[in-house]
Design goal:
Chains: A mainly alpha (314), B alpha+beta (409), C alpha/beta (139)
Strand order of the largest sheet of chain C: 1-2-3-4
Shape of chain C: globular
Oligomer: heterotrimer
Largest sheet of chain C: 4 strands, parallel
CATH architecture of one domain in chain B: Orthogonal Bundle
CATH architecture of chain C: 3-Layer(aba) Sandwich
Number of strands of chain B: 10
Number of helices of chain B: 17
Radius of gyration of chain B: 23 Å
Helix content of chain C: 25-40%
Strand content of chain C: 5-15%
Radius of gyration of chain C: 14 Å
CATH class of one domain in chain B: Mainly Alpha
Largest sheet of chain B: 3 strands, antiparallel
CATH topology of one domain in chain B: Cytochrome-c3 Hydrogenase, chain B
CATH topology of chain C: Rossmann fold
CATH superfamily of one domain in chain B: Cytochrome-c3 Hydrogenase, chain B
Number of domains of chain C: 1
Strand order of the largest sheet of chain B: 1-2-3
Number of strands of chain C: 4
Distance between the termini of chain C: 9 Å
Chain lengths: 314, 409, 139
């Protein structure tokens, strides 16, 4: 019972943290371009402002799907993030909840994609086909890397993998070579899952006017942006706790409670800066064919390598 | 009575094709142009180009104003190449009125001309980076461009629309203090330019620009494209060398025409980057060899304007985008019979169709930016009725209606 | 100040519409994003779709071909919105007054909240105009 209570408490915490992470990302991106950049709490202002705007549903859209999708997408990603945070705080989990978290995150991307195509705009249709191609490209290596770490920890429960790191007193990425390769694969798949340049092909502003988001405005846009921010937060939090759980290296008081949680958040923030902000600043956008080829060559190859290394015993 | 069912044709719907409108309002385009692109999945099958959204009737307005008012009107045809337009117009008037500006005035005109070429090419490099999603390079190129705009402000008082030209000379002079400032700025700009050149050779940028928007040399010659678009396809033409104007006849050895053969978007952009280095050398030479003397005639511009007789001439300059051509016919009474402007974008924009067929949607903004379109320059239609000796300004819809009435009674 | 009002002032999203200008004002609007002037520190982003925008920046005298598109884009921007006329062409139509191709300056067609004059106005003037309009309309 107290699991459900903890889950309900973490929902607003996740809301607050995901918008904060987005603010830090924008600020660092601006500083790297020699500009000052917005204040860190800017996404909160954006969210409140968008909620107070007029609701417009275009005539060509199928209005029920169009209006329901933002709520489902936001709920799915916030729930996915909240399950992982709550599970870490309560130090417990159920079998298979790792698959549940990944499913919820993928579902929120698919929902946004469907929303774009239900708007009746040709740019939404182009965004739909591009996002579909990207999903096939990055979801497969990501899942294979999760498979390889669950082989190594002999469990599909999220907290068991964290507990393995606490038990071994080291970060999972540095225990064996196959785990290091799996960590690299997961980190490489994050920019595509987060729609960050060079893989923001389905939401390219200068090519297809934001793709799936073109007809969304007002409160719908606020919820879709919240879904994206929560999904980025969830991905980096997952990457941190599955591969780089720092409190496992500490002893005693330092490895439980609020202090440990703060250390986790700082690590997740650093991972966000490395995988989303830095590529966003220093690369140009790729074309869909080139991105697909890249993902089926390098991350796919690495993920298969990690499973192979594990089977061999490394 | 004809049978109705004979007129109804079989319409086959091809569900694999999608017609995507690109413009006139689009974040990739700073100026309105409508491109209706037919695609299948991501491959482009057909392009339909529609101009005319910036048509303001400038040539019609020019016929009702006197020459000095037309000078200010012509400057505002385009904000990016405004000095090229005024230079071309004043050159035409000076030729009709047989007024020869002083040497110093010609050198100063050329100096502002080359600075404008620099600012326009830096503008384009930023826009191309923005189109391929590389925001950081866009910010950096425009940061460098601000130094050039500062120089404009020091010399002429405004960042855009500098109104430097007057009939018979220029309006603002250079002090030795300013000459030093220009030299200092040029050193910093050259260093940043070398860095930009390196970044343009980065892997992700090359993947977007190479092999995109290919325009072969024969196609370029058939469509009569001009400027860096033509030079990127190997066509060797440059008005500064072929028909020298202003001070270019004395500066012939100090610059070279940049040519590339690979004919894709990357070639056109590389031509512009190298032209920037050539411009820096030209400006340094101009500052060293600046002759002394007055910068304009002693009579006021209004007196000079009244002296211009009836006559007609053609004047050409090399604007940043290519060859700009003016046909001016004065009427001896401070006004114009006819002003015809042929800007470089008019032939260049038609080359979009052979460039884009076979490419992907993602290549549309890249190809459109690499030909450096200036839509504001490219929109004018005037109908001249020769029998009645009158001119009317009309638009495409009227022309179409007239054509239909005439050929299909 | 209420939270809704404060957030509208702190996060105005801009959409730039060119109704036939010479591109002088447009390059000064885009220059306002670059590191020297940086409007993003005030929370402004240049968005790609009118449905995401709060402030409509219009340049150019409205030409006949752009008139229906202008009205359509104006209706697509959700309320509450701010309309800013940037440049002398949008304010009064000059120097193209008298041409048959111009449908008149902007205020014959829509209600304008702020006029930023200049040919072209400096980026600092554009930023000041936008901030004044946002504070006046939403505050």
């Amino acid at each position: 019972m107290d699991a459900i209570v903890m889950l309900l408490i973490t929902l607003p915490v996740v809301f607050f943290l995901s918008l904060l992470f987005e603010g830090v990302d924008r600020k660092v991106h601006a500083r790297m371009q020699k500009r000052i950049g917005p204040p860190i709490i800017q996404p909160f202002y954006d969210f409140v402002k968008l909620f107070n705007k007029e609701r417009i549903v275009p005539v060509t859209a199928s209005s029920r799907i169009f209006t329901a999708i933002p709520i489902i997408a936001a709920a799915a990603s916030i729930l996915g993030a909240a399950i992982s945070v709550a599970s870490l705080i309560l130090e417990t989990g159920i079998g298979g909840d790792l698959i549940l978290i990944l499913y919820l995150l993928a579902m929120s991307s698919v929902m946004v994609m469907i929303g774009g195509s239900s708007s009746g705009n040709p740019y939404g249709a182009v965004g739909f086909s591009r996002k579909m191609t990207m999903l096939i490209a990055y979801e497969v290596p990501m899942l294979i890397s999760i498979v390889s770490i669950s082989f190594s920890c002999l469990s599909l429960a999220y907290y068991d993998i964290v507990a393995t790191q606490i038990g071994m007193k080291s970060l999972l990425a540095f225990t064996r070579p196959s785990m290091a390769v799996a960590a690299a694969t997961f980190l490489l798949c994050i920019p595509a899952a987060a729609d960050a340049v060079p893989f923001d092909i389905s939401e390219a502003k200068t090519e297809i006017i934001h793709g799936s988001l073109v007809e969304y405005g007002g409160p719908y846009l606020a919820l879709v942006k919240l879904a994206k921010a929560a999904s980025n937060f969830a991905l980096t939090f997952l990457a941190m706790s599955l591969f780089f759980y720092f409190p496992a290296l500490l002893e005693g008081y330092a490895s439980v409670g609020l202090g440990a949680l703060c250390l986790c958040l700082v690590t997740a923030l650093i991972l966000l800066l490395l995988t989303i902000t830095v590529p966003r600043t220093i690369f140009a956008r790729l074309k869909i064919g080139q991105a697909f080829k890249f993902y089926w060559l390098i991350p796919m190859g690495l993920s298969v390598l990690s499973v192979a290394l594990f089977i061999v015993g490394l | 009575m004809a049978n109705k069912s004979d007129d109804v044709k079989e319409i086959k719907v091809d569900y694999t094709r999608l017609r995507v409108p690109f413009g006139p309002v689009h974040p990739a385009l700073k100026e309105p142009i409508s491109l209706k692109v037919t695609v299948r999945k991501e491959e482009i099958l057909d392009v339909d180009i529609g101009l005319g959204h910036v048509h303001r009737g400038i040539e019609a307005l020019a016929e009702n104003r006197n020459l000095v008012q037309t000078l200010y009107l012509v400057e505002r045809i385009c904000g990016i190449c405004s000095h090229s337009h005024t230079t071309c117009f004043t050159q035409a008037l000076e030729e009709i009125g047989r007024i020869r500006p002083s040497e110093r005035a010609l050198y100063l005109r050329t100096l502002i001309f080359e600075l404008e070429r620099m600012h326009s090419h830096l503008f384009l490099l930023g826009i191309v980076a923005y189109e391929i999603g590389f925001d950081t390079l866009f910010m950096f190129a425009w940061y460098v461009r601000e130094s050039v705009l500062d120089l404009f402000e020091e010399m002429t008082g405004n960042r855009v629309h500098h109104s430097m030209n007057t009939i018979g000379g220029v309006r603002w002079d250079l002090t030795p203090n300013l000459v030093e400032k220009v030299n200092d700025s040029l050193k910093k700009i050259e260093k940043s330019l070398k860095y930009i050149h390196e970044v343009f050779q980065d892997k992700t940028v090359e993947k977007r620009l190479c092999e995109v928007g290919v325009l072969s040399c024969n196609e370029a010659k058939e469509l009569c494209v001009v400027g860096p678009t033509a030079r990127g396809s190997g066509v060797n033409m440059d008005v500064r060398r072929d028909h020298p104007y202003a001070a270019y006849s004395e500066l012939k050895e100090n610059f070279s025409v940049v040519l590339r053969q690979s004919a894709d978007a990357y070639a056109r952009i590389e031509v512009r980057i190298l032209e920037l280095f050539e411009s820096i050398n030209l400006i340094r030479t101009i500052l060293e060899e600046l002759p002394n003397g007055p910068i304009s005639k002693e009579e006021s511009i209004l007196k000079l304007m009244r002296k211009i007789p009836e006559g007609e001439t053609i004047s050409m300059v090399e604007a940043p985008r290519g060859e700009l051509l003016y046909f001016v016919k004065t009427n001896g009474k401070e006004g114009l019979w006819r002003l015809k402007v042929r800007t470089p974008t008019i032939p260049n924009v038609l080359s979009l169709k052979p460039m884009l067929i076979g490419c992907e949607i993602a290549d549309i903004p890249v190809a459109a930016a690499s030909i450096d379109p200036c839509m504001a320059c490219a929109n004018r239609i005037t109908v001249v009725d020769q029998d009645k000796r009158e001119t009317r300004v009309t638009d495409l819809e009227n022309l179409r209606r007239r054509g239909r009435k005439q050929w299909m009674p | 100040m209420k939270l809704a009002t404060r957030s509208r002032i702190k996060s105005p999203w801009l959409f730039h519409l060119n109704t036939g200008s010479c591109a002088g004002c447009d390059i000064e609007i885009v220059a306002a994003l670059t590191p020297r002037y940086d409007v993003e520190r005030l929370g402004c982003i240049l968005v790609g779709s009118p449905r995401h925008a709060d402030v409509l920046l219009v340049t150019g005298p409205v030409t006949r071909q752009m008139l229906p598109r202008f009205i359509r884009v104006y209706e697509q921007v959700p309320e509450p919105k701010v309309v800013a006329a940037i440049g002398t062409c949008a304010t009064s139509g000059s120097p193209f007054i008298g041409s048959q191709m111009i449908e008149g300056p902007m205020d014959k067609i829509v209600a304008v909240d702020v006029y930023v004059v200049g040919c072209p106005p400096r980026p600092e003037a554009i930023v000041r105009g936008v901030v004044t309009a946002v504070k006046k309309k939403f505050g």
